[in-house]
Structure to design on (80 residues):
């Protein structure tokens, strides 16, 4: 599973950081997943830690694309 956490660091100080949200992306292990293509589930969390959106990325070309492209696609599928 991939988890990207978004935090605010006021004035660049980690002592005062606070959580703004997160996105999780995981392989769904669908029967049609292969070495080259896979389906992924997506959960987006708001600043209170609750799930605010869910989505799926289907047929992702996992060996030829960087992880940041998968996260971007996950956010697009979730409506961002």
């Amino acid at each position: 599973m991939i988890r990207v956490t978004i935090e605010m660091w006021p004035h660049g100080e980690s002592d005062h950081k606070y959580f703004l949200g997160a996105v999780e992306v995981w392989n769904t292990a669908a029967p049609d997943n292969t070495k080259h293509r896979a389906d992924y589930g997506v959960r987006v969390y708001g600043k209170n830690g609750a799930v605010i959106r869910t989505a799926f990325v289907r047929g992702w070309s996992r060996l030829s694309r960087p992880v940041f492209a998968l996260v971007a696609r996950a956010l697009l599928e979730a409506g961002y």
Summary: The CA atoms of residues 8 and 18 lie 5 Å apart. The chain is about 15% helix and 45% strand. The mean pLDDT is 95. The beta strands are 2-8, 18-27, 37-45, 51-61.
